[in-house]
Amino acid sequence: MTTHDPIPARLAELKTATTPELKAQWRDLFDSEPPPFNRRYLESRLAYRIQELAYGGLKPETIRRLERLGEELDGGDRKKSRVRADIMPIAGTRLIREWQGVEHVVTVTADGFEWQGRPYKSLSAIARAITGTRWNGLVFFGLKNRRRRT
C-alpha cells in the first residue's frame, strides 16, 4: 500500500509560483514578513520550511554541532560569517584573470588568498595591486556580477 506524499508536488510548485505568491507563502509558513532577498533565496527557504513542517527539523544536537563547526570556521567573526558561502570559493581553488595581456593566478587559502607568492586578506587588495585602481575583488575575478540582480 502506498500513500501519496503531497510534499514533492508542493516543492515543484515553488518553481512556477510568482514572487508575490512566494511572499504570501512565506507569511503563512514563517508568520513574518518575507526578507528582501532574491527569488532563489525565497524558494530555497520555503522548500526547507515545507519539508521541516512535514517531516520534522534538525535534532537539537545537530544544530549545536553545526553552530560549533561554524564558530570554528569563522572564529566567531561576525563579518566572516556574513560572507555568502556560495560566493567565496573553497581553499585550494585557483582564480585566473587576464589583465592587459598578463594572466594572473590567485590561490584561495584557508586564511585568505595568495598571489605571486604573497598572502593577501582580500581579493580587492590583489585586484588593486594588479590594476593600480580600486576594484571589488569579487567582481574583478568574476565571482560576482557588477550589477545587483533583482
Structure description:
This protein is of the alpha+beta class and 150 residues long. It is built from seven helices and four strands. It has a four-stranded antiparallel sheet with strand order 1-2-3-4, covered by helices on one side. The chain starts with 6 loop residues before the first helix and ends in a 10-residue tail after the last helix.
Summarize the structure.
The chain has 150 residues and is an alpha+beta fold. Helix content is 48%, strand content 13%.
Q: What is the strand and helix layout of this fold?
A:
Layout: H1 7-16, H2 19-30, H3 39-55, H4 60-74, H5 78-82, E1 94-99, E2 102-108, E3 113-115, E4 118-120, H6 123-131, H7 137-140
Antiparallel strand pairs: 1-2, 2-3, 3-4
Helix pairs in contact: 1-3, 2-3
Features:
4-stranded antiparallel sheet; 150 residues; single chain; alpha+beta
Q: Can you list the strand order of the major beta sheet?
A: 1-2-3-4
**H/E order of the elements?**
HHHHHEEEEHH
Total number of helical segments?
A: 7
Radius of gyration: 21 Å
Number of strands: 4
* N-C termini distance: 46 Å
Helix content: 40-55%
The largest pleated sheet is described as:
4 strands, antiparallel
* Relative strand content: 5-15%
Question: Mean pLDDT, nearest integer?
Answer: 85
